[in-house]
Amino acid sequence: LWVQEVVFGAGESGFRRRASEEAAGSGETPRRALARLVTEIVHGPAAAAQAAAATDALFGATPFRELSREALAVALAEAPSVSFSKKELAGGYPLAEVLVAGGLASSKSDARRLIEGKGITFSGMVVENSDQKLYPGDFTGGYTLVRRGKQGVLILVLK
Q: What percent of the chain has pLDDT over 90?
């Protein structure tokens, strides 16, 4: 609390008020504004911008392939990932097995149910075939993103 008083001069209520005011002016939620402000204070404006870009690529509308190198590093540090060699993917690697290995599904049958229910996106596209496989050509810049619904993410890395 004393840090807030030193930085903002008004304690916790001033901190929240500043986040609410900034959120109102920018169109973001007060929670996001608060997270951005805290990140800026602790890590600096550049790190806050990278974290925001990584978050938008993982959970928002920005395509994952458009991340800067710095924002990609943030995403890789924060989100779960699974690595594959080109040799492993040469003949195709079942997406259902990837979902289990990455923790997005509890079993291959759970993975197939998620896919059939259109709950999985791969590289921004809804997966409809439960037998879909991954190949080296599916990776842009050595990385791709798999999402389960709105909150579950898994970064796939091509070694």
A: 43
